Every structure is written in C-alpha cells, then in structure tokens.
C-alpha cells in the first residue's frame, strides 16, 4: 500500500468536489475527517486508517445528486483505493461503511456495526447539527429553491428514501423531519455529548424563528 494514501485521497476527493453545492463540499468532508479523528482519540478505539479514509470518501457520490445510485460512492471509493494498493479486508470494510453511512429518511436497518462505521457516522451527523447544520440546511434549501418556511405544509414522515429525496418541503420542516432526531441516534458517548450541545442551539434558533415568523403574536 502507498505510504501517502491519505494525501492521495485528499487530492482525489478535493478534485471531485470542485464546484459542488456549498453545504456538501470539500469543507464538509474536511470537518467530518477532523471530527472523526477527534472522536477516535476520545473513544480510544477503532482502526485509524479505515476511519480517516471512510470520512474522506463518505460523500464523493451522493444519491441525492447522482440520480439515486446508492452504490456509486462506495464503488468509486474502492476503485480508487484498490489503485492505492489497500488490502482486501479494508477495501471490503470501507465499501460497506460508505454504502451505509447516509440517513436516507430513516435509520435503514443493516448489519454494519463496526466502531469505525459508528465513529464516521457520528462525525457526519454532527456536521448536520448546530450552527453549521443550520447553515447547511438553508444552503441546501436555497440550492433546491425550497421555501424557507410555509405554515401550510405540515411536517411529514417519509415512507422510503425516494420520497425523502423528492420532498419539496420547507427547510424549517427538515429540522423536525431529520435534524432534531439525530441526537438520539448517536453511536458514541463523545458524539452524543457534542450532539446535545448542538441540539440545544438548534432549539434556541427554532424558538427565535417561530417568534419572528408571527409578528401578529407580538
Ligand atoms: P450527509 O450526506 O452529509 O450525511 P445529507 O446528504 O442528508 O447529509 O444532507 C446534507 C446537508 O443538507 C445536511 O446538512 C442536511 O441537513 C441538508 N439537507 C438534506 N436534505 C435537506 C432538505 N430536504 N432540506 C434542507 N436541508 C437538507
Ligand atoms: Ni456527509
């Protein structure tokens, strides 16, 4: 295996994210990479190389933007890493982590429960919370030209991944449909503690938003 597999992977991933939507760009990946390293060190377990590579490669092909192909990201990642000479066991494991990491409208049942998976999933989820999570949500909503807020459209529970992806619901609804649920889905103690702080900040934001949205109640 190449000794510079991490820097090679950084270059590969950065080239893929040229011109990407702002909430889902290289800087999201970089934060997830650093956060995954931090959680790994706090928890004191998990294979470092697997965690770093999974974090770096977790979003290189998003089914929301690639026509719904759930396998494309893991395929591209394992093709790239095979070229770097990564061993077959790690390749296999990384493919599974990347395939299962995203939320897809619910907590899709699957058998990937490794600590490496849990750490990278926590790092990814943390980036959807707090101040950054709020910024990313409205950026995504703007990119998709979704309304910010529309009191006539109720919060929805999506039956499957495709109805979740197809939703045109206002961005404020996304907090109730996904973001406020994440703190109870965290895998590690480190992730949970960080998620709770970010959760409280989002509640504060939503409360302030609600008051500003109803001047008639002042
Ligand atoms: P990731 O792939 O990083 O796990 P997602 O692809 O689900 O997360 O979402 C990327 C970012 O876009 C997140 O911050 C998420 O909250 C936001 N986002 C996804 N779907 C919506 C939506 N329907 N409305 C507003 N924001 C959304
Ligand atoms: Ni992500």
Q: Can you tell me the number of structural domains?
A: 1
Radius of gyration: 18 Å
Quaternary status of these chains?
Answer: single chain
Bound molecules: adenosine-5'-diphosphate, nickel (II) ion
CATH topology value:
Hypothetical protein af1432
Strand content: under 5%
What is the CA-CA span between the terminal residues? 64 Å
> Tally the helices: what do you get?
10
Provide mean pLDDT, rounded. Answer: 91
Largest sheet: none
Low-confidence stretches: none
Helix/strand-derived class? mainly alpha
Helix content: 55-70%
Number of DSSP strand runs: 0
| Architecture (CATH level 2) name | Orthogonal Bundle
Question: Given the C-alpha coordinates, what overall shape results?
Answer: globular
CATH class: Mainly Alpha
SSE ordering: HHHHHHHHHH
Short recap of the structure:
With 218 residues, the chain is mostly helical. The chain has helices at residues 5-16, 26-43, 48-57, 72-83, 88-100, 115-126, 130-143, 161-166, 171-177, 189-213.
Describe this structure as you would to a colleague.
The protein has 218 residues and is mainly alpha-helical. It has one domain (5-217): Hypothetical protein af1432 (Orthogonal Bundle). It contains ten helices and no strands. It has helices spanning 5-16, 26-43, 48-57, 72-83, 88-100, 115-126, 130-143, 161-166, 171-177, 189-213. Bound molecules: adenosine-5'-diphosphate (ADP) and nickel (II) ion.
């Amino acid at each position: 295996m190449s000794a510079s597999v991490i820097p090679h992977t950084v270059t590969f991933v950065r080239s893929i994210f040229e011109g990407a939507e702002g909430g889902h760009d290289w800087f999201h990946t970089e934060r997830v990479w650093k956060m995954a390293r931090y959680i790994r060190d706090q928890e004191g377990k998990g294979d470092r190389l697997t965690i770093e590579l999974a974090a770096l490669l977790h979003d290189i092909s998003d089914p929301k933007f690639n026509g719904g192909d759930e396998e494309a990201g893991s395929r591209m990642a394992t093709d790239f890493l095979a070229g770097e000479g990564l061993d077959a066991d790690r390749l296999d494991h990384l493919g599974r982590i990347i395939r299962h990491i995203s939320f897809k409208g619910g907590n899709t049942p699957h058998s990937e429960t490794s600590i490496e998976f849990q750490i990278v999933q926590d790092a990814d989820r943390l980036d959807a919370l707090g101040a950054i999570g709020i910024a990313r949500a409205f950026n995504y909503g703007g990119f998709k030209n979704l309304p910010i807020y529309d009191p006539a459209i109720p919060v929805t529970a999506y039956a499957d991944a495709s109805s979740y992806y197809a939703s045109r619901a206002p961005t404020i609804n996304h907090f109730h449909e996904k973001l406020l649920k994440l703190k109870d889905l965290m895998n590690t103690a480190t992730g949970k503690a960080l998620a709770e702080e970010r959760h409280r900040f989002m509640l504060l934001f939503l409360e302030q938003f609600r008051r500003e949205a109803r001047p008639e109640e002042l």
